[in-house]
Amino acid sequence: MNAFSRTYRNKLWLALIALAGLYSCKDEVLPKPEAQLRLDYSFPKYKPYVGPCPYTFDINSEAVVKVTSDCGLEINYPKMKATIYLSYKSVSNNIDLLLRDAQKLTYKHVIKADDITEQPFLNNNDKVYGMFYEVNGNAATNGQFYATDSLRHFIDGSVYFYAKPNFDSLLPAAAYVKNDMRRLLETLRWERGVEATSPKIALPAEKKTQL
């Protein structure tokens, strides 16, 4: 075989190898990058929420509210893949039971949480008394609260993200939604004409539980 034939065969093999590589690249399936939560959140703007149930509060204008059974609410944040679940219960000589259930709901997350900070809330003028829980760590929820007038109304709320719990990656979104939850608690009002007295449920100062 002369030099020209060997050179021709070498070039032919190189061309075939390159062609095979081209087709294999076309068939290669690349993994999709994991979904990331948006971090460019706009400054919150609030508006009054007035629904069919005996309470009102301020809500983020970008949130979407869905009324569920028994005057519960789902407050959805589509851009953040988060939802605040709000439940409502009537008080009828069962305030102690409602308080215990709300506290159990928070502390069931102690396995994954680094710490839970309790922040009492008192609004004597509008008869709103409650507690805000800030949950730090890779727990399923990052914030919870409850509020009552002690005689007729009781609500509790929790925020959940539709993403794998990761405290560091969720931190900006969690802080944003928890700020909205505090705004909800601060602006919560019961239906008019309801008399209530302050229950003994608040701690004298902020309490932080290390887990």
TrEMBL record:
Any matching Pfam family: GldD_lipo
This protein's UniProt keywords: Lipoprotein
The keyword Lipoprotein is assigned to this record: yes
Record-linked PROSITE patterns: PROKAR_LIPOPROTEIN (PS51257)
Protein name from the UniProt record: Gliding motility lipoprotein GldD
